[in-house]
Amino acid sequence: MIGRTDTLSDGCGARAPSPRRARADRFAIGLERVLDALVGAMILVMAVTVCWQVVGRYVFDSAPGWSEELSRYLMIWVTMIGCAGVLRRGGHMSVTALLDRLPPAAASVLLWVRDICLVATLALLTWYGAQLSTMMGAQQTATLGISKGWIYAAIPVGATLTAFMLVLARIAGAPFRATEEGTEDVLHKE
């Protein structure tokens, strides 16, 4: 599992795992598990909250106002943190028609270009998301009464975590490319 390149290879052939790559891969796997647990807990809270809202509205004829707001804000955080959580295992949708037809060296270059563009985009999201979060910090949500800055903080937090996972994947030598078998098969091979 550590240093493996069979399912997440950049097409350049297998490389012997160095201690640095093995540590990066172990850390990425651990961080991915933490993020998955966090996202799972948030989804559980969302599900309970939405069920409570439905029961309140249709059974008791009085839905709590905070439940819809909480579930909406949790969905934002789930999306942004989940983005980082699925990166290493190739869980993001991708169109690989060109990549599949390139020789291994050209495919590797294309993956590097992709990663550089992704890091640049994530840096912009982090920068402007932090500014937006700071700017919105003075406003409060309608029913929960928390600062909107906390909601908008999902943007820079998610972008930073995603960039960090990308760097870890590169250090580990696995540029998160799902195989033709699909993401489910990649997950079961670990």
UniProtKB/TrEMBL annotation:
<feature type="transmembrane region" description="Helical">
    <location>
        <begin position="70"/>
        <end position="88"/>
    </location>
</feature>
<feature type="transmembrane region" description="Helical">
    <location>
        <begin position="109"/>
        <end position="130"/>
    </location>
</feature>
<dbReference type="GO" id="GO:0005886">
    <property type="term" value="C:plasma membrane"/>
</dbReference>
<dbReference type="InterPro" id="IPR007387">
    <property type="entry name" value="TRAP_DctQ"/>
</dbReference>
<feature type="transmembrane region" description="Helical">
    <location>
        <begin position="34"/>
        <end position="55"/>
    </location>
</feature>
<comment type="similarity">
    <text>Belongs to the TRAP transporter small permease family.</text>
</comment>
<protein>
    <recommendedName>
        <fullName>TRAP transporter small permease protein</fullName>
    </recommendedName>
</protein>
<feature type="domain" description="Tripartite ATP-independent periplasmic transporters DctQ component">
    <location>
        <begin position="46"/>
        <end position="167"/>
    </location>
</feature>
<keyword id="KW-0812">Transmembrane</keyword>
<keyword id="KW-1003">Cell membrane</keyword>
<keyword id="KW-1133">Transmembrane helix</keyword>
<dbReference type="Pfam" id="PF04290">
    <property type="entry name" value="DctQ"/>
</dbReference>
<comment type="function">
    <text>Part of the tripartite ATP-independent periplasmic (TRAP) transport system.</text>
</comment>
<comment type="subunit">
    <text>The complex comprises the extracytoplasmic solute receptor protein and the two transmembrane proteins.</text>
</comment>
<dbReference type="GO" id="GO:0022857">
    <property type="term" value="F:transmembrane transporter activity"/>
</dbReference>
<keyword id="KW-0472">Membrane</keyword>
<feature type="transmembrane region" description="Helical">
    <location>
        <begin position="150"/>
        <end position="169"/>
    </location>
</feature>
<keyword id="KW-0997">Cell inner membrane</keyword>
<dbReference type="InterPro" id="IPR055348">
    <property type="entry name" value="DctQ"/>
</dbReference>
<dbReference type="GO" id="GO:0015740">
    <property type="term" value="P:C4-dicarboxylate transport"/>
</dbReference>
<keyword id="KW-0813">Transport</keyword>
